[in-house]
Amino acid sequence: MALSFKKIATPIAAALIAALALTGCSSIFGGDSTPNEVTIVTHDSAVVTKEVIAEFKKQTGITIKQIKAGDVGAMTNKLILTKDQPIGDLVYGVDNTFAPQVKANEMIDGELEPVDYGNVCFNYDKQWFANHEQQAPTSIKDLTKPEFKGLTVVTNPRTSSPGLAFVAATVAMFGNTGWEQYWRALKANDVKISAAWEDAYFTDFSGSSGKGEYPIVLSYSSSPAFEVRDKGDYAGESQTASILDGCFRQTEYVGVLKNAKNPDAAKKLALFLINDPFQSTIPETMYMYPILSSVELPKAWKEFAPSASNTWGDQLDISANRLDWMSKWSEIIDVN
């Protein structure tokens, strides 16, 4: 079945269309002035499938080149350092924890457009807790209790967007002074700090493919839908579940980089990413909700990936507080 390109009407999408028209293109994907390759910079978890790449080339004649530049924090730092001579034409995957840095450095041509969103939440390994005849935590408040000592792995907020999201969630939940006390208690309870989400989830976490030593991991509310087992004690069920008290609402964006070598193609790809067929690939490849509401979610999400009814920290002014938070967090955790 041929893939379709379903247009959506948002102010920024309209602006992208207008900008393309001003460049002399006869349609969104028409014209001869655009070179035939566009470079998109993403974080390591971003997936642009072969089918999507082929469809974009079919519609535009342009080939997508993807550069994976580390976790969101590392990617953002690289883009800031190279903003005068950017390593790509557009960026995808900057989220609402690091977007203020991007905006402050004036490195985006136009605006950041939302592409997907998700809930940063803790997951736990149901099998581990069943085997140890222990009750699983139900809130992030539980993670400092003695019975969960040495069981939790999180990610470094300096380089990881889920890590920074979790710090913001603790500030919102425990207050401007209480969050530091919480982190001291978490450190005393032997929390592990991993550099990136991939390391924490696929290596350290006992409930995923890495079969690590930690049964509690900072991840997403949608992650359990991808841990449904074909056989064993959890056949037809997910081996993991989410802790829905203490989650953070994360939104990821796409934006055309200033000084891009191929801005016309970058605008076309940015518009492509907020429409089908790309939007339909997001749930299965990146554990996130597509911004396009008409996309049908996987059936397993309804049963195993409930969304958090309340989130913490996503309404805070992260831009104004990030440096202060990171300074205090580093003093507590002793990670530079």
Protein architecture, described:
The protein has 336 residues and is α/β, with parallel strands linked by helices. The protein folds into two domains: 11-117 and 251-290, 3-Layer(aba) Sandwich (D-Maltodextrin-Binding Protein, domain 2); 118-249 and 306-333, 3-Layer(aba) Sandwich (D-Maltodextrin-Binding Protein, domain 2), CATH 3.40.190. Helices cover 37% and strands 18% of the residues. It has eleven helices and nine strands. Strands 1, 2, 3, 4, 5, 6, 7, 8 and 9 form a nine-stranded mixed β-sheet that branches. α1 packs antiparallel against α8 and α6 packs parallel to α11. The radius of gyration is 21 Å and the shape is globular. The N and C termini lie far apart (51 Å).
The largest β sheet comes out as:
9 strands, mixed
The H-level CATH homologous superfamily of the largest domain, spelled out, is Periplasmic binding protein-like II
SS-based class: alpha/beta
- The overall average pLDDT, rounded, is 89
How many separate structural domains? 2
The total of helices stands at: 11
Strand content: 15-25%
Work out the helicity level: 25-40%
> What is the string of helix and strand elements?
HEHEHEHEHEHEHEEHHEHH
Low-confidence stretches: 1-33
CATH architecture of the largest domain: 3-Layer(aba) Sandwich
Shape: globular
The level 1 CATH classification of the largest domain is Alpha Beta
What is the CATH topology classification name of the largest domain? D-Maltodextrin-Binding Protein, domain 2
Instruction: From the alpha carbons, calculate the radius of gyration and give it in angstroms.
Output: 21 Å
Query: How many runs of DSSP E, i.e. beta strands?
Result: 9
In angstroms, what separates the terminal alpha carbons? 51 Å
